[in-house]
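User: Hey, quick favor. My workstation is busy. Could you predict this chain's structure for me?
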Amino acid sequence: DNLAAESEGAAPNHLARNLAQLDDTQRRPILMAFYNGFTYEQIAARLAMPAIQIKTHVRAGLRTLQEIHQA
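Assistant: No problem, here it is.
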């Protein structure tokens, strides 16, 4: 139905707006992990940061996205 189609079409735009609210240290590794399929280690190598720091940024970013979504 039309409502379902509109909701599906709006989801990518909604996600893009929410991702834009994150700072770059959170947004970049999230995009690299979920859209490019990189592991924390691969992201760390590309961004010249320790993998544990990448993991921390991803988790914080996902937590922020969840809070934005629930608001």
